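S.,

Sequence below, as promised.
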Amino acid sequence: MTKKLVISPEYPQGIILDLTVEEIAQREQDAIKDEQHNLSLIAKEEQEKLNKQSALNKLKALGLNDAEINSILGN
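The prediction came back faster than expected:
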């Protein structure tokens, strides 16, 4: 079972206790939420890369060269 360290006026040196069923469930929910958030950030990053590449491809299709594109983008 998972443990936790509790430090309180009663136990100034600390005491190791088992997590309650509720605490375990909350930790699991938090882990799921964190993973979903991380996946969301990764998906957003990937979409931004795809959008940038699409924009660059469209500018090139209009006949702009890399130097012109970089000057527009401020690179």
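Residues 14 and 56 are 59 Å apart (CA to CA).

Coffee later?
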